Amino acid sequence: MRMRSLSQRLGSVLLTLLGLLLLTFIIGRVMPLDPVLSIVGPDADRSTYDQVYRQLGLDRPLVVQFGYYLRDLLHGDLGNALLTGHAVRDDLARVLPATIELATLAIVVGALLGVPLGVFAATHRGRLGDHAVRLLSLLGHSTPIFWFGMMGLLVFYAWLGWAGGIGRVGLAFDGLLEPVTGLLLVDTLLAGEWEMFGSALHHIVLPASILGLHSMSYISRMTRSFMLSQLSQEYILTARVKGLPERTVIWRHAFRNILVQLLTIIALAYGGLLEGAVLIETVFGWPGFGQYLTSSLLLGDMNAVMGSVLVVGLIFITLNLLSDLLYQVFDPRTRK
Predict the structure, then answer these.
(1) 89-335: which CATH architecture?
(2) For the chain, which residues make up each domain, given as ranges?
(3) Cα separation, 66 vs 84, whole angstroms
(4) Which of 73, 100, 228, 236 is spaced 20 to 30 A from 152 at the CA atom?
């Protein structure tokens, strides 16, 4: 029975990825962007254009093109990127760690702030504290994140000098360290480069905090909603009638029952940060996944776009599977 469930889930994952790739492939072919012109330039003659057109396989039917792409994909070949001239697989391995590092620190900030604020708002429903948290969440969710980024650079970098500027590290350290994991904070610690570690931390704090505040808005609102639902249950009234301390009622009873839902929300928020950090990456000159995907889209580089979409799909599928596993850890009822 367990093997059957596992095979069904695996089949669902493969069908989801296949559908995602097919949809992206079709959209890429109907976009008003010509990848051939991106290679040869607008001044190339017709013969050169036709030669590159055939080399890219664009003269074949769409079904054949997609079939060839899937064949290469099964061999681990994502093609070459027009943007860089390198293999898409190598490009993704280079840009993903920068975004993972930024998004991981951001989700830590968002969860550490959002969860307590949501609990606080729920336990002070209708009072000043609740209104303040809801207003903060509304502002954080509705204000354009690129505006936050520009204001953050203006205030904390240009005026106060508290934060680093654009990029992942200061210009004096750029290119000095051979990457091991691609996570700059980790690599500098492994190499014992403490001055470079300080520079990397100085640069990542501001963009990660802005992204974290954005995710905090969503996490705090959902935490508040989940807590309000639990605090209205009869078992909470029973616990209070028994004379249990309010702190115990809130954290050991009500909060424990929303933990499973909250883990899913945090996982989805993390996935959103990984594929949606493009505006912050653009403002801060962060050489990450979002900036790479956007540049590839504008260039009509379908190999890079398809590879990036595949990565995004795998990220969300992995996070969903991880959420299911955590469900079984924290909620014994789901193990059946």
Answers:
(1) Orthogonal Bundle (1.10)
(2) 2-74, 89-335
(3) 23
(4) 100
